[in-house]
């Protein structure tokens, strides 16, 4: 039986090359994206050798994510691989319709609601995997306080982004603990600093760094290869709760390994989204 992979943010950059490689390997795909036109373009590029379904979703909106979960649950019986790829960095503070800071909402809250909402479909697979895109930027998660993630008193784009990426690792680790009894793995992956448009817009220090050092970065194809390796390598089938960089086991921060922080973040996320599933 062919396996099904769900990927968020598949229409550009790392996500696009990840989707193309998974299709090449024979995975049917669930493409979760905001831009329908780009998703349809990707479907045409993939062709008909595998099945590709498009589900509209704005990860910054809790209502939109919950609606996407309902649509996926109505149309699919199982998910073998879930890749939380989509993410952003915002130069200046923005707040979502739910009153949550945009970076944290998109990078953590959206994936939290999506993943927990699809647990039953992951359980239905023989040995499902969850891959959460993180970043070495989690080392920049200065003055991390769970209660202030949704509405931080001060804003610096790289620090806020770093906190959201730390949240990704904490979530990934806690998810691995909660899903271990069901044979489902959850790992966090830093794809490497990638030569793409991500973080390169605007005039801030982060944008300057991205533009100046762009020639030295990895290509989206190289980054996608590392993600696909963690997601599909047979030797990693039983590996869970780990942090990878460029496809290899790597060192994460002390905060990222903190179980109490992970449980605290989980409870905070449940309260913020009125989600209690596992």
From TrEMBL:
GO terms for molecular function: oxidoreductase activity. Keywords: Oxidoreductase. InterPro entries: NAD(P)-bd_dom_sf, SDR_fam. Gene3D superfamilies: NAD(P)-binding Rossmann-like Domain. Pfam families: adh_short. CDD domains: retinol-DH_like_SDR_c_like. The keyword Glycoprotein does not apply. Belongs to the short-chain dehydrogenases/reductases (SDR) family. This is Short-subunit dehydrogenase.
């Amino acid at each position: 039986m062919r396996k099904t992979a769900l990927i968020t943010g598949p229409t550009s950059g790392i996500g696009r090359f990840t989707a193309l490689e998974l299709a090449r390997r024979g995975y049917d795909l669930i493409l979760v994206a905001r831009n329908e036109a780009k998703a349809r373009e990707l479907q045409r590029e993939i062709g008909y050798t595998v099945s590709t379904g498009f589900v509209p979703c704005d990860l910054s909106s809790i209502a939109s994510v919950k609606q996407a979960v309902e649509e996926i649950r109505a149309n699919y019986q199982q998910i073998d691989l879930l890749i939380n790829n989509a993410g952003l960095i915002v130069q200046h503070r923005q707040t979502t319709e739910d009153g949550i800071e945009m970076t944290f909402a998109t990078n953590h809250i959206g994936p939290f609601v999506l993943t927990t909402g699809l647990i039953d479909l992951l359980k239905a697979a023989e040995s499902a995997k969850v891959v959460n895109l993180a970043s070495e930027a989690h080392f920049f998660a200065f003055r991390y306080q769970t209660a202030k993630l949704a509405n931080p008193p001060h804003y610096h784009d790289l620090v806020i982004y770093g906190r959201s990426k730390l949240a990704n690792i904490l979530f990934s680790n806690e998810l691995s603990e909660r899903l271990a009894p069901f044979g489902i793995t959850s790992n966090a992956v830093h794809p490497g600093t990638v030569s793409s448009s991500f973080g390169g817009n605007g005039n801030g220090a982060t944008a300057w760094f991205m533009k100046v050092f762009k020639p030295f970065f990895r290509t989206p194809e190289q980054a996608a290869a590392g993600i696909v390796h963690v997601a599909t390598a047979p030797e990693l089938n039983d590996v869970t709760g780990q942090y990878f960089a460029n496809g290899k086991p790597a060192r994460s921060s002390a905060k990222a390994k903190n179980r109490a922080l992970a449980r605290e973040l989980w409870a905070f996320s449940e309260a913020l989204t009125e989600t209690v599933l596992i």
